[in-house]
């Protein structure tokens, strides 16, 4: 099944409503390939937890992680980095509800801004809460 931006925004909005109602956390991880020939999904999707949703948009992707704090999301990013270190040039950004946005639009926008920072930092870079967490 092909899923696009509308599906991702719908799911994120739904998960945010649940997080608000039940006072839970939620995180979003965005990933981008430094090499335009790479499809990010082939590198990461097999390693995404079954309870998370991965949206593959070719050279970049989004992972919606319900009931996952920013610290837990960064643990997952570190797993992805370890798995992809030698194979794929990937950059990462993470954001979480409620600190980084209380709407799907704001959370995605803030996380996307971080992804742009990570892309400037180089292979393996991770940016969360506006601060680079390292590269390679």
Characterise this structure.
This protein is an alpha+beta fold. It has a single domain (5-130), classed as Alpha-Beta Plaits (2-Layer Sandwich). The protein has four helices and six strands; from the N terminus they run H-E-H-E-E-H-E-H-E-E. It has helices at residues 5-21, 40-44, 70-84, 104-121, and strands at 26-33, 53-56, 60-66, 90-97, 126-128, 131-132. It has a six-stranded mixed β-sheet with strand order 2-3-1-4-5-6, sandwiched between helices. The model has no long low-confidence stretch (mean pLDDT 86).
Topology:
Elements: H1 5-21, E1 26-33, H2 40-44, E2 53-56, E3 60-66, H3 70-84, E4 90-97, H4 104-121, E5 126-128, E6 131-132
Parallel strand pairs: 4-5
Antiparallel strand pairs: 1-3, 1-4, 2-3, 5-6
Descriptive key words:
136 residues; 6-stranded mixed β-sheet; Alpha-Beta Plaits; 4 helices; globular
């Amino acid at each position: 099944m092909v899923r696009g931006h509308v599906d991702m925004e719908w799911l994120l909005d739904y998960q945010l409503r649940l997080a608000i109602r039940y006072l839970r956390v939620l995180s979003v991880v965005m990933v981008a390939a430094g090499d335009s020939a790479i499809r990010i999904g082939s590198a990461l999707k097999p390693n995404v937890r079954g309870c998370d949703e991965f949206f593959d948009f070719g050279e970049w992707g989004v992972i919606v992680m319900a009931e996952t704090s920013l610290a837990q999301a960064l643990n997952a990013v570190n797993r992805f980095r370890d798995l992809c270190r030698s194979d794929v040039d990937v950059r990462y950004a993470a954001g979480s509800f409620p600190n980084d946005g209380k709407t799907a639009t704001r959370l995605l926008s803030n996380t996307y801004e971080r992804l742009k920072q990570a892309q400037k930092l180089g292979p393996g870079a991770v940016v969360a809460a506006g601060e680079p967490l390292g590269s390679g």
